[in-house]
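Researcher: Please predict.
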Amino acid sequence: MSGSKRNKAPRNTKGKTLKSKKVTDTPRVPGELESRRGSRSERRKHLDERLRLLYQRTMVIEDELRRLDEDRFYRVCIFGSARIKPETKPYTDVFELARYLSWEGIDVLTGGGPGLMEAANMGARLGSEEKKTKSLSYGLSIQLDFEPEPNKHLDIKRHHHKFSSRLDDFIRLSNSVVCTPGGIGTILEFFFVWQLIQVKHATPRPIVLLERAFWESFFEWMKKEPLGRGLMGEKDFSVIHIVDTPAEAFEIISQHHQEFRSRTSKIVEEPT
């Protein structure tokens, strides 16, 4: 057969040229075509339903991930300002606390940025090297103009595009929380953890607030106004610990860590 005949378009039985089907590399998303049809309200309803189903799947996956890790690892999440510089007392305190935690084999989790996050990750790295423990330095980074790159002291990095998913990851991955001096972001993270514990969407865990001078007057107001007006309960404060030194913070977390290890060892020893 000649080359010219091979290149001719195929014909059907009636002699008409068949048009070749266009092939694309982009797979079709289920429901994509339907979402482009119909009225605005129909499209919104369809997309809302798809979003609801995706959320349900995400919750199932998140629960499975939590079950895989909850009896194996103990991690401390340290929140703090990205603006605090080295050679300051808050920076040194956070560095020392993370170092102590790492000595005990406790993983340290931060937002992976500069400032007090960097101090925590750096302290965790050093402590692990000094005592030859298996503790890890985690960073859950997010893209910000003033935090273009994660700090350089991370063993495990995880990047988030939204603050909401990042906050959920902080809760899922941590067993206790330390809040150090910070601004809106740090205070948001503190309230997020505290509120989830209050409504039992997160397991009870210590929330240790480092530097009494920074936090104490704030809690005086919390007890005078929200608590005084009956907008919250006295028991909501049971998870809060205000301390002044890294050693005090470490003592609270170490005790909780030992209780955690005692519980998990009993689970492992129980016959299946």
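Model: The first strand starts at residue 75 and ends at 79.
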